[in-house]
Fold:
Amino acid sequence: MIIRPYTTIDKQECMNAFCSNVPEFFTESEVNDFDTFLDTFHTKGTVNKTYYFVLELDSKIIACGGFGDRYGDDVITLAWGLVHKDFHKKDFGKHLLKYRLDQIKLIYPGRPIYIDTTQFSMGFFGKYGFNTIKLSENFYAPGMHRYDMVYNENTHS
Structure:
């Protein structure tokens, strides 16, 4: 297993991993959002200090995710974290999350870390120190609620 920075040649494998999680974890409309994010990452990512990584297993990308100071307000947000559905529940998500949190602590020490996610992933993040601070029902789509969560290093298992 290798975690490394995303490059443009990784796009198709990241898109495949993303699409494997539609519609359970992401909506159809988010496919275009993710595609645009990947297309503009190298130009806009450096401006808004976004970092994005891929997790490779046997030279195949099976997960990706990043973080950044999206609004320039010193608040760090996790971005587009996902694992190909064929590799769920095998600890790859845990490894990628831990890697991202470690990178944030190095690059942005002491800054608050947030994520918005659905009810389908909020339990995962809760296990690793994220606490829900806001719930917005039917935010992403009917039946797909948004959970705004903040990281508390002292509560993770």
